[in-house]
């Protein structure tokens, strides 16, 4: 792992149960290739870096070969937007250009893009040119297309599908599916999942019966409260395959909601996903012969986990390639100055453990102090005008831990490069913008829910042989810790499949389901007709402009007509604040 990373003191509770077909899977890694290096709990549980992960997958592939079984490695997208390694490149270089080279060192069998691969045309194009070719057909994007500069023809972003033989000779048909993402950059196209399954080429690809279908997709395998994330179109893909092949095995690997979860779809189909930020490596094993059945496990990403499951120790775990990858990651972090300290955070602030406006919520810190401080510093000429700052919760991505706050931390909290726009309106209008923008979101969510209800519901699985014979130890709740083995803080997963699936037992860190809605700084004690500045990030300019136009008819606000509030963008905000307040 990376120099200075605090190692985990926790260990897995029991060995993995292998089937004849096995999968390791990642999703929503968002650039956390350095692993989690802080000492505050639960960070040490996720302290392995991508070099460790490479050593782990190498040992696991060898174990599979020794056992004469298959092991496939899958990723379900969102490789960048989340750390300095992916987003801290010098100006002009597309996100993830360097970090993608690290990912290319891993032996993935199937990869698929997430929505973050498509927000910016420059990074989508760079992925297409520099990353996709390396995979020789393994990077699959069944419903994503792109146009090359100065052309109009849509071409597949990755391969539309992949048919291949596993090392044990099993025939696989694989697809890669992204939810119907609509905020993609001009020059990229995402087909809806309904449209995808109607394509003649899709019907043709599905027609021939393989031993198993493997579908990696950037959509959650469960329903979510948040309409931004509640984009579970898996039943559409599932039915499109099931109609033709009633009993063929289907393995679905989801993502996007940043949670561990699992759903049994029928006796021969299961959908599963790991969490986010390289905190989880998922494990799924199945017997396609000998009466079927599955086991699953959510592995914490630390060296204890990796060594325990590969029967190695500090002496023989690291492979040369793994050590080399760790060193390359360290070098890039050094070259890009990611460990530069901007200030010292006086306490922890959490994203998901406490609710806004709790004093330990990173959202509270951001709205009540960070944003007002930085906006005032950034536009001193407007400091006599009252200010209402608005932001979208989804732009804040992670906790802040007490101690040195570095350039990399700035990217883990707020990786996006959004400008700040403003309009000057009477307080009577300004104070209603956030509610109005959120109301529209809720209306859209209701519409989407209504469409979803029109879809056939999933059949109830009957008598699903879950888990695999020999996996009974997985059932019955968390293993009781020994008295001298205190539990550490971490994830305690309750997914929708049978039994207990966390690999290492923990005391629950908690976690809240939140909508990616709009929030604003505290109300101002001013009269309704006082003019004020409403400031918001460019990413949400359209919904805020729409809300303003509904509240203030006749003004005709447009995104193109908006002015920048200050020179700093969202990626600068925490640096400016930490230098000012924590230094
Ligand atoms: N330029 C951007 C891009 C995205 N966001 C926020 O990220 C959310 C999507 O992230 P997921 O991991 O859930 O896919 C999006 O809804 C925005 O809130 C942003 O702020 N700026």
From TrEMBL:
Q: Name one GO biological process term.
A: nucleotide catabolic process
Glycoprotein is among the record's keywords: no
Ranges for domain Putative 5'-nucleotidase C-terminal: 348-544
What is the top-level taxon of the source organism? Eukaryota
Q: Which GO terms describe its molecular function?
A: hydrolase activity
Q: Which Gene3D superfamilies does this UniProt record tie to the protein?
A: 3.60.21.10, 5'-Nucleotidase, C-terminal domain (3.90.780.10)
Decide whether keyword Signal is in the record: yes
GO cellular component terms? cytosol; extracellular region
Domain named Calcineurin-like phosphoesterase: residues:
22-259
Pfam families linked to this entry: Metallophos (PF00149), NadN_nucleosid_C (PF21953)
Q: Which UniProt keywords apply?
A: Signal
Entry-linked InterPro entries: 5'-Nucleotdase_C_sf, 5_nucleotidase/apyrase, Calcineurin-like_PHP, Metallo-depent_PP-like, Nucleosidase_C, Pesterase_C1039
In Swiss-Prot or TrEMBL terms, this protein is called Uncharacterized protein
In which organism is this protein found?
Dacryopinax primogenitus (strain DJM 731) (Brown rot fungus)
Q: What is the lineage of its organism?
A: Eukaryota, Fungi, Dikarya, Basidiomycota, Agaricomycotina
